[in-house]
């Protein structure tokens, strides 16, 4: 948590100097762990992004990188382990049990907590997904250790402590947080904040299977249904290669059609800034920014978005940011690559039209239908 | 039934300014609001009470001025408000915050009846961690149901509850038991307008104020800075981008001219996009 949840402004930085020698019981904690998130036959890509980061931390510390897999017996669980090796893990910890088929807080907390207390990692990273946040909070509280949410940067300092940097106050400031005198040091990272590492060819490594005795009768909460969005984690806004988004500058909810039309024309996904969700113009899962989705597209077109810091935090990973806004002083022009000071409502239709003209006849037929 | 809602008074983040030299939040004159996500939790709690009878207790931990936020929740119709305030809580991280709140909830249970449900918002807009809810659940050994979009059914006799929970890629339906802790998703309900009767009652209501000792906290080393394993080492402003956006000159140009230039500009910088976008042709 953090600082941001502090009841008073964070204390002057002097307290970090209070770093005492690590208590004896934590000295045995070594290695970097990444929780591998499985969801209905897929590994959540945030797990690979974290393995990329975890690899860097492990190399700096001169320790091993482990993937942690909790899942039901069967092929898919082992596939997830092989993928963890391909993305850089040296070893994998596995708890296999039928009751780990669907995520539930009780058995997952028990299994992960037991792995940590048995094998003692110094760093444990999880994706800041609905699953990861649900699980990390329970595990950190059980272990009475520190947990830093939604980190945007991870590093280790000279004495081997994890330095976790995260936005605070909606992104207005960044703060670097340490977990003193407790292990493991835990952190969550949102999908797409870290770059996807190269996938290697190695799919082999040491697997440590650990048995956690649990029976279904003792688990109170039951999953009685699941309604899929029909989208895999990779086929959504966060993982789109091209994104078009609209903001308050569009003036009216119906003008979002201009955004959607351009997106459809160029095969992009679309989203919006926070105020539009608050106005009810777009559903919350389309929100881009600090409290919405983080995106890393090759091209991001922001139409009528002022670029408040909350928004900037979610789009900075884009390769090319194109901003359209009537206000020449809008903050978005401070971090976009290409800008045009004009009314997006007038420009978007021209952009769409021009792109349409260049469509191959084949694509044009598809769009016409 | 007895329901506890945890709320937090937060600075209105849309009006936060950072001091350019000291990099501290300039709180002077920044209005405070009830954390917007908490209102959905509050509404759900009030609806359950209206439907099933019982009481709603609202709890916050914060400085004395957080009383305003509690009073506001009373005007919406909560039955009782508890303010947990003590200098020993200053600088609490999520672990220390969940400790203090869980102790206060236990005390609320002793004083006013054990809660069947503890509600929190999904997260706060100043902390954005979503960690305090799960922390409270763990410490009080409550079943944890986070990111709940809808309470589908509740059976007080059987002590059963069924909820729809937002998960990655879909909606999970979970059947669980009371007592539990629920964090509500934004937009899960329509927040009511307080009634005049409730507003009058709220103005007359006394707010229960507890220090750490009043809440039964004996071990102060678990509170505030001392009870917080995480430490903020450095606070800094996001680095400025070295280069500002290259502006396209708009003088006497039609939208079509600008669109031409933009598309050319896109491909100049990212030639690889030519094959990505759903069209072909030379820019």
From TrEMBL, chain A:
User: In what residue span(s) does the Electron transfer flavoprotein alpha/beta-subunit N-terminal domain sit?
Assistant: 32-223
Q: Report the Gene3D superfamilies cross-referenced here.
A: HUPs, TPP-binding domain
Q: Which residues bind FAD?
A: 273-274, 287-291, 304-311, 325
Entry-linked SMART domains: ETF (SM00893)
Q: Does the keyword Cell wall biogenesis/degradation apply?
A: no
Q: Does Cell membrane show up as a keyword for this record? A: no
Provide an example Pfam family for this protein: ETF_alpha
Question: Superkingdom, according to UniProt?
Answer: Bacteria
Show the SUPFAM superfamilies listed in the entry: Adenine nucleotide alpha hydrolases-like (SSF52402), DHS-like NAD/FAD-binding domain (SSF52467)
Q: Which cofactor does it need?
A: FAD
The family this protein is said to belong to: Belongs to the ETF alpha-subunit/FixB family.
Function, in words: May play a role in a redox process involved in nitrogen fixation.
The entry's protein name is: Electron transfer flavoprotein nitrogen fixation protein FixB
């Amino acid at each position: 948590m953090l600082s941001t949840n502090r009841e008073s402004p964070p204390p002057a930085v002097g307290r970090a100097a209070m770093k005492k020698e690590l208590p004896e019981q934590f000295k045995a904690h070594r290695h970097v762990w990444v929780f591998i998130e499985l969801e209905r036959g897929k590994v959540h890509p945030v797990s690979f992004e974290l393995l990329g980061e975890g690899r860097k931390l492990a190399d700096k510390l001169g320790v091993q990188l482990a993937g942690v897999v909790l899942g039901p017996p069967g092929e898919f669980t082992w596939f997830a382990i092989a993928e963890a090796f391909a993305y850089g893990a040296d070893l994998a910890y596995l708890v296999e049990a039928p009751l780990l088929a669907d995520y539930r807080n009780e058995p997952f907390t028990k299994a992960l907590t037991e792995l940590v207390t048995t094998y003692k990692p110094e760093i444990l990273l999880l994706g800041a997904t609905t699953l990861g946040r649900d699980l990390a909070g329970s595990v950190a509280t059980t272990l009475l250790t520190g947990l830093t949410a939604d980190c945007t940067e991870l590093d280790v300092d000279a004495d081997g402590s994890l330095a976790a940097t995260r936005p605070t106050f909606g992104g207005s400031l960044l703060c670097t947080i340490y977990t003193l005198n407790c292990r493991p040091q835990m952190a969550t990272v949102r999908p797409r904040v870290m770059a996807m590492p190269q996938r290697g060819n190695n799919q082999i490594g040491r697997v440590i299977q650990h048995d956690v005795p649990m029976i279904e009768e003792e688990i109170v909460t039951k999953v009685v249904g699941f309604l899929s969005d029909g989208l895999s984690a990779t086929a959504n806004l966060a993982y789109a290669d091209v994104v078009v988004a609209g903001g308050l500058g569009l003036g009216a909810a119906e003008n979002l059609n201009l955004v959607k039309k351009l997106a459809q024309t160029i095969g992009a996904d679309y989203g919006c800034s926070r105020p539009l969700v608050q106005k009810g113009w777009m559903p919350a899962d389309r929100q881009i920014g600090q409290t919405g989705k983080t995106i890393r597209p090759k091209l991001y077109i922001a139409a009528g978005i002022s670029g408040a810091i909350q928004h900037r935090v979610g789009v900075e990973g884009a390769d090319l940011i194109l901003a359209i806004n009537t206000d020449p002083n809008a903050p978005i022009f401070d971090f976009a690559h290409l800008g045009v000071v004009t009314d997006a409502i007038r420009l978007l239709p021209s952009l769409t039209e021009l792109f349409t003209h260049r469509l191959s006849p084949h694509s044009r037929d598809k769009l016409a239908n | 039934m007895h329901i506890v809602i945890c709320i937090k008074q937060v600075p209105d983040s849309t009006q936060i300014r950072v001091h350019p030299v000291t990099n501290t939040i300039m709180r002077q004159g920044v209005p405070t609001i009830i954390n917007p996500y908490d209102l959905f939790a509050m509404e759900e709690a009030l609806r359950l009470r209206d439907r099933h009878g019982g009481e709603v207790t609202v709890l916050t931990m914060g400085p004395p001025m957080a009383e305003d936020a509690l009073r506001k929740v009373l005007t919406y119709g909560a039955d009782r408000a508890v303010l947990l305030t003590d200098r020993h809580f200053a600088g609490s991280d999520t672990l220390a915050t969940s400790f203090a709140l869980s102790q206060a909830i236990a005390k609320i249970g002793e004083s006013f009846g054990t809660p069947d449900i503890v509600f929190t918002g999904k997260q706060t807009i100043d902390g954005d961690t979503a960690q305090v809810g799960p922390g409270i659940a763990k410490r009080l050994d409550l079943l944890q149901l986070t990111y709940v979009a809808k309470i589908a059914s509740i059976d007080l006799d059987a002590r059963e509850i069924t909820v729809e929970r937002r998960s990655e890629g879909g909606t999970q339906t979970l059947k669980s038991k009371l007592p539990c802790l629920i964090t509500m998703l934004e937009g899960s309900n329509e927040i009511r307008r307080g009634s005049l009767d409730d507003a009058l009652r709220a103005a007359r209501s006394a707010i229960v104020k507890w220090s750490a000792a009043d809440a039964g906290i004996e071990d102060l080393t678990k509170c505030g800075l001392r009870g917080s394993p995480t430490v903020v080492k450095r606070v800094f402003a996001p680095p400025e981008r070295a280069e500002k956006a290259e502006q396209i000159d708009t003088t006497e140009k039609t939208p079509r001219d600008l669109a031409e230039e933009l598309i050319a500009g896109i491909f100049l910088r990212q030639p690889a996009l030519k094959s990505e976008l759903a069209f072909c042709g030379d820019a």
